[in-house]
Amino acid sequence: MRIEPNAEWYWFYEPERRKLLLSINCGNLFLSQYSLKELGCDRDIDTVPVNVDDSSLFYVIIQHIADLPYVGFEKIQIALNSITALKFYGGGCINYVENAKCVDQLKSRGPKFAEVLSVISFKNCHEGNLQERMIGDVIALKPGEVQTLCMVLGTGLEDGDKSYNFMDLVTVDNDCLMPFYKMNEEFNTELQLKSIAL
To answer: Strands, DSSP E only, in 28-128?
Structure first.
């Protein structure tokens, strides 16, 4: 099924599931990942139509994730959940990532909307000590001067004792974000150097 946002699409809230749904082509429904509470949205929702700006954001996101290793329906899920989060985000900090390494790679320009980025974070391994370094990927949805609202991509993101899954929303300090391809390149180089040392 071809997905193309248009003026006939609209969001509504499903009290039983406590999630936002999007009515799309021919009466089909898309169940979003998020509840209004998760998004910090305190307004009442009846029906909210998809507008031109929402459609534009959808296509920008699809373009930015085009080269990522996802099948078609997963890319659609990422884009639809992204525009849902942007439409109903009420502000504030959602799932702040505390145990991320400061890399200061984007200080000169800051993250851009729909940019795919990486985060070096740490998870608790033994007796609560932060030891194991993890790498997670995110897409920037709401860049700010200091922090950015992101959606988790890939296999997830570890943060101390917490784990965030694919398409969860997190808030990350800008100085803990770095470009996706640069991150992979540096991490692979480090692994190679460790292998040589062994």
So the answer is: 29-31, 47-49, 116-126
